[in-house]
Amino acid sequence: MRAITYTEYGTPDSLTLTDVPDPRVGPGEVLIRVRSASVNPVDWKVMGGYLDGLMQVDFPAIPGWDVSGVVEQVGLDTPEYEVGDEVIAYARKDWVQHGTFAELVAAPVRTVARKPKSLDWHQAAGLPLAGLTAYQLLNRLGTSKGETVLVHAAAGGVGLLAVQIARHLGARVIGTASEGNHDFLRELGAEPVTYGDGLVERVRELAPDGVDVVLDLVGGVLETTKAVLAEGGRHGSITDGTVAEAGGLSAWVRPDPSDLQALSDLADAGALTVPVAEVFALEDAAQAYALSQGGHVRGKIAIEVSR
Q1: Which residue ranges does the record assign to the Enoyl reductase (ER) domain (predicted)?
Q2: Which of 49, 69, 260, 298 is most buried, judged by most C-beta within 10 A?
């Protein structure tokens, strides 16, 4: 099969389109014919060696954890799915080697859910990692109806989903973003504020008594978070491990089929959409990585593997 691989840590130029053996399908796994995969910042961070102390990478490695596609084969003792089922997955395993930037990927059923019928292949591929990150963080912080939530980097891949999920939970949402993304956030149901100097004052103008929940999706904002948090408020970060020292939650997303199915159901209920910023061909994965590394992408970056 065709796949994107890299043989050592490096830059996007390290990515190569090559032919590799089809993956084996073990017990409790499904083989997915990949229609689309999604690029996440963690992909190029792993490839760059930034997470070497955290995650095992076996070379040559196929990157990618997000996928949408069709079940082509089921492994032993896998009653959950049948050949032909349309699925999505946050196909993260215990080590990095056989990822989703390939024509086929074997995914444990603990990472898989039904594809939302309301989303196309590229939108669906952008849902798992970012959606689970937002969904799990909001739930772990106990977000509830009537609360005010501040989302740092609300127009990013995780942020735009966090805004929608928080709104579905009945929360009021304030989101930080550049002015060029303010109308976009308003369409998603958030009240936008410009990040940078004076952010604390701008948030306090909207929420004089402080906010109940803060999601840090960018890092470097702990002091701002503490300055706008209401008494008894909760905060968590996906980028800053020091938040635990300040009473916050340092979170790392995990595969969960029930959570992923809940996100799929939200999309089909009309409560969740996944904006796609750009779609690249498989052979252009290096360009997709470079775009993600540049930051300031509004929406998800997809890689079309097959039609």
Answers
A1: 10-303
A2: 69
Read off φ and ψ for residue 197, nearest 5 degrees.
-55, 135
Closest to 14 measured CA to CA, from 49, 42, 39, 52: 49
- Give the model's pLDDT for residue 69: 98
Region of 210 on the Ramachandran plot (φ > 0 left; ψ -120 to 50 alpha; else beta): left
pLDDT of residue 295: 79
Taking the C-alpha atoms of residue 303 and residue 36, their distance in angstroms, rounded to an integer, is: 6
Max Cα–Cα distance, the chain, nearest Å:
59
Residue with tokens 């939650």: 249
Give pLDDT, residue 95. 94
Residues 6+ apart with CB under 8 A from 278: 288, 291, 297, 301, 302
Taking the C-alpha atoms of residue 120 and residue 136, their distance in angstroms, rounded to an integer, is 24
Pair type for strands 57-62 and 2-5? unpaired
> In 3D, which of 152, 145, 255, 258 has the Cα closest to residue 195?
152
Question: Distance (Å, rounded) from C-alpha 208 to C-alpha 201?
Answer: 9
Beta strands in 41-187, from DSSP E residues, in sequence order? 57-62, 66-74, 86-90, 96-98, 104-108, 112-114, 148-152, 172-177
Do residues 301 and 280 make contact, with C-beta atoms less than 8 angstroms apart? yes
Confidence (pLDDT) at 24: 97
Torsion sign (Cα): 180, 164, 63, 243: positive
The answer to whether residues 71 and 83 touch, using CB atoms and an 8 Å cutoff, is: yes
Distance of alpha carbon 112 from its chain centroid, rounded? 15
Contact (CB, 8 A) for 83 and 67: no
Query: How many residues appear in the chain?
Result: 307
Going 162 to 168 to 173 to 178, the CA torsion angle's sign is positive
What stretches in the chain show pLDDT beneath 70? none
Contact 69, 113 (CB under 8 A): no
**Are 300 and 288 within 8 A, CB to CB?**
no
